[in-house]
Design brief:
mainly alpha
Amino acid sequence: MANLLTRIKDTVMADLHEVLDKKEKKNPIALLNQYLRECERETEKVRKLLERQYTLKEEFTREYEQAKNLADKRKRQAEVASQAGEEELYQFAAQEQMQYEERASRLKDLLNQAVQQMDDLERKYEEMKHKLKDMHIRRMELMGRENITRANHQMDKVLDQNNDKNFTRFQEIESYLDHLEHQVKSSYHRSTIDARIAQLEKELEKKPVL
């Protein structure tokens, strides 16, 4: 069963790659646009992760400062209790001080990690933005080349004097015009002859018969 599913998966992926290859050959710019949209989505995901890292850094900073302040507070309170001879109060304050110091130490390590991770994300995010910008510029360059190529191809089809089809069309048009011109001239001559003969007939009718 597993082998069958594997074969089916391989067949589907092969068909998909074939379709993509055909699509790329037919319209490479469209495929490039799709690839750029995918890159933009990935870049947006990194931006959101970076925003979350900023939030985590602020939370770690706030928790660290709070634990550090509480540890300093309990330290002063333990010193006061010790000077006053309040052993039980001193023990409580000293225990709290130790717990807050341990928490502050842990939070400081987490804060440092968060800052390092944020720096790494920022660097990678900037690299992705530059890469994406370069790809957009590259796309514009390719679109320009494609546009010029298509325009030259269209113009070449019209301007190619060795194109038999173009010559055939021109010859057909010239023959048609020659035919029309001949018809017009013939019609003109016929009408002219008919009018001249009619005039001569009238003149002959007016002459007296000898």
